TrEMBL record:
InterPro entries: CsaA, NA-bd_OB-fold, tRNA-bd_dom, Tyrosine-tRNA_ligase_regulator. Keywords: RNA-binding, tRNA-binding. Residues 12-115 form the TRNA-binding domain. This is tRNA-binding protein.
Length: 115
């Protein structure tokens, strides 16, 4: 099969490190133009806690995010977003300005790899 721009090889996909983490802190990110939250996600002992910014204010409050288990990419390089250095990318389904988080339907150990 020919590899075009939309097709990944299995080797390329295996390099994307998606992990389960629990949101332990969430607050309004007042320093950005588009409404967003600052998150701290706990990925367990091996990876630890990572910061992220997420534009998920349409569907979630900060209170309901605490304790929610999410899926995030943890091996992208850090990215400066206003005054926050984002260390992971929390995954979600995007429809316009609404983002629905990818969550676990059963309690899962923090740090487990998605594959």
């Amino acid at each position: 099969m020919e590899n075009n721009n939309n097709t990944l090889t299995w080797d390329e996909f295996s390099k994307v490190e998606m992990r389960v983490g629990t949101i332990v802190e969430a607050e309004v990110f007042t320093e950005v133009r588009n409404p967003a939250y600052k998150l701290i996600v706990d990925f367990g002992e091996e990876i630890g806690k990572r910061k992220s910014s997420a534009q998920i204010t349409k569907l979630y409050t900060t209170e309901e995010l605490i304790g929610k288990q999410v899926v995030a990419v943890v091996n992208f390089p850090p990215k400066q977003i206003a005054n926050l250095m984002s260390e992971c990318l929390v995954m979600g389904a995007v429809e316009g300005k609404e983002v629905t988080l990818m969550t676990m339907d059963k309690p899962t150990k923090n740090g487990l790899r998605i594959g």
